[in-house]
Amino acid sequence: MSKKKEKIYLCTQAGCDNKYNRPYRLEQHLLSHFNIKPFPCPWENCSKAYSNKSHMNRHIASAHKQVKTNIIYSCPQCLKTYSNRQNLKKHIRQKHVVSLPFVCDFCNAQCRKKHQLSAHMYIHNGVKAFKCETCSKEFVTLYEKKKHMRCHKSYKCECCTLIFNHWSKYQKHKKSEHSAQKYICNECGKVYNQRSYIIRHLQSHMNIQNPRKFLCPYSNCFRRYSRNSNLTQHILIKHKKIKHLCTVCPGEFSTKAKLNEHLKLHRDGKRERRKVNTTVRKHRKDKNSLKVTTALKLAGILGLDGKTLNTDVNNS
User: Fold this and answer.
1) Fewer CB in a 10 Å sphere around the end CB: N or C, the chain?
2) Which long-range contacts (C-beta less than 8 Å, at least 24 apart) are formed by 54-61?
3) pLDDT tens for each residue of 79-107
């Protein structure tokens, strides 16, 4: 049970011994001594006023909205009815609440459960009543101990030998390693976790002369593309004449990316220069000599070592 805040704010008026644990409650109480009621009832022909807004709302609910809402709060034990929930709670607390079973020997504080009394006793003796059986760390409340015990709990994977200290990491491991559907290539054995990936990979095993299978449907246009997204971009730009216009100048661009790159010039006022490779290339060792190509080797004109096999070629 959480520690109750002590009532240290005392009323300064003569003959009044009221004290409160919050400063704003003391301020509300002082209004009653000076007969200050800043919350008048907003209903017509009602002169009631209150020092607390909640009291005004209670008055409106009981005096003005009772017939309209027809809400009745009835005591479950004596069946006595009240106009609002606050009055019913006050009645039950005064008439029907019995003594709680666990009472503090020092301040007579009552607790509903034993562990709440154990936590309350820390106020008097400074002893933390709850101790972790694994690391011997002590806690004031049972809730703090249960929250701490989560760090000692482990989760062993049912499909492999890995052990995790956090439930979220264990679930992430199961989803990525054991639960996700896998697509295996029958040709090379590569594994993919998405169907689109393996479809793209299988095209590498097919003997396709022309992979550009997406043809432009417009007449007199023979463009073809390897991806449908590229074909869609081609139709929007070339045939439907959809372009991205600059809002600053009359510029027109085929893609939004090019437009955004152009808008940077208006914002920054300068274009980034392309990096020029200033490194000096080394001189080739075989400069001004006959290069050995695979075609010459296969034709039998040059050997694998680069020497000429056909003397007629040298003479010519």
Assistant:
1) C
2) 54/86, 58/84, 58/86, 58/87
3) 788 777 888 888 887 787 767 788 888 88
DSSP 109-128: -EESSHHHHHHHTHHHH---
**Residue appearing with tokens 């709990």:** 153
pLDDT, one tens digit per residue, over 276-288 is 666 777 777 766 6
Across-strand partners of 192?
Answer: 183
Torsion angle, CA of 106/108/109/113, rounded to 10 degrees? 90
Q: Is 10 helix (H, G, I), strand (E, B) or coil?
A: strand
**Residue with tokens 């980034």, as numbered in its chain:** 272
* Residue 111, CA distances (Å) to 7, 36, 121, 128, 137 in order: 19, 38, 11, 17, 25
Q: Which residues contact 75 (CB under 8 A, 6 or more apart)?
A: 81, 82, 88, 91, 92, 96
Locate tokens 């730009």: which residue?
237
DSSP 43-66: STT---EESSHHHHHHHIIIIISH
